[in-house]
Amino acid sequence: MDISRCHSALLGKLELRFWAFSARQRLWLEGGTAFTLGAASEDDGAGPATARVFFSGSVDYDAAAADLSSDHDELSAMLHEAYLSVEGRSVDLALGKKMVRWGTGDGVNPVDLINPQDHRDPLASGRSDNRLAVFLLQGIVSLPVPEPVQELTLEAVAVPLAEVSTLNAADSAWEPLALQNIRAAEQQGLLSLADQEKPERWFKDGKYGLRLAATTGGWDLGLTAYSGMKNVPVFTGALDADNRLRITPVHPRINAFGVSFAKGIHRSTLRGELALKPRYPMQKEGTLVPGYSRRSLIEGVVGFDRTFALNRYLNLQYFAEYVPEDNGVTGRGYSDGLTFECSDLFFNDDLKLGISGVVGFSGQGWAVQPYGEYHIGDNWLLAASLFLFHGDESERYGQFADRDFVSLRLRYSF
User: Fold this and answer.
1) What angle do CA 98, 100, 105 make, to 5 degrees?
2) What is the DSSP secondary-structure string of 47-105?
3) Which of 71-75, 165-169, 302-306 has the highest mean pLDDT?
4) pLDDT at position 17, please?
């Protein structure tokens, strides 16, 4: 159960109000099977291909969230993944609803663009975002390698009809401040908010990506290219027949190119990514009529994680965004920050205590989460966390400063 805390100062007194914005009870089911295709070749000794079927889904009951907004149904069922994969000697294929996570960063991945974010639960556990599987075709080909390369693969992904992030419903827990203001102005009759324009044309409104990955000398290296719809919408504005401003959320097409690396060093890992997104659509700041302008965007992340002694863990990642020709479009040509996590295990590794968060160095504010997880036997997990936000209400993390929350979770696995 998640409990949100709002606070306000009235006549010098601090007023605390608590309410449940999620009391989700979830039954999660997953399973699969594998079978062989054909027989082994006597000529080259190659084994037969293996086919696998995998699915995962859940049934949720969450009365609290349904009372606050239309983001959640009181009773809902969701198919998370369902796909068929065929693993051959040098070619692997997968078809169906699937997750594809690209990049070596730990939670910050500039080229991880295939799967959209789940608007109903964007923070997930608080230490990562929550993504949605999409219907896709994936192929991975093992290429011949010269010395000193140990492994070289080419991966292609095609999503024939792009799925994108949906706007949060009014009064939902994670409705952004900008969207709240737009809806408030709509209620006052100052403007109208049109339905979100989602992709509708098969193949033309798809997502397509290529990734070349190599392993050499202990380094994992990758080159990535992506072309497809932007997951998070931008807003455009125009005057309607009644001379009233009409705002429409749209998803323009984008391109992205990236490089990534990861290197294991004893009990440590060094990792990083750099992405170029030419003519990236960016929301204009400080304009009367909403719109976007295309500017080149450079995103990067470099991280380091290490396990000390047996169980003590530290993860630090520096991330940055740079718009070379911003010209006042976004209001900030360069922004950066740091994500962190440290944890340790106690009581024969049954108890995990840690703290994680993100700090913006460019005025974005910060968010921090102390957490604990206790394994009771082989089947039960008891987890709790406190999530705190701080910063200016117009900034990325500060806008949720009145939505600090406590999360309590009990899970039984069988």
Assistant:
1) 150
2) PPEEEEEEEEEEEEE-HHHHHH-TTS-SEEEEEEEEEEEEE-SSEEEEEEEE-----SS
3) 302-306
4) 56
- The pLDDT score that the predictor gives to residue 9 is 32
Long-range contacts of 317-321 (CB under 8 A, 24+ apart): 317/105, 317/106, 317/107, 317/108, 319/105, 319/108, 321/297
90-412 CATH pick, 2.60.120, 1.20.1070, 2.40.160, 1.10.3470: 2.40.160
Domain layout of the chain by residue ranges? 90-412
Q: What is the pLDDT of residues 350-376, one digit of tens each?
A: 999 999 999 999 988 999 999 999 999
3-class DSSP assignment, residue 208: strand
Closest CA to 131 of 149, 119, 147: 119
Give the DSSP letter of residue 284: P
Longest Cα pair distance anywhere in the chain, in angstroms?
A: 86
Q: Quick check: helix, strand or coil at residue 181?
A: helix
329 token code pair:
């479009």
Percentage of residues in the chain having pLDDT higher than 90: 53
Structure-block tokens of residue 76: 């809902």
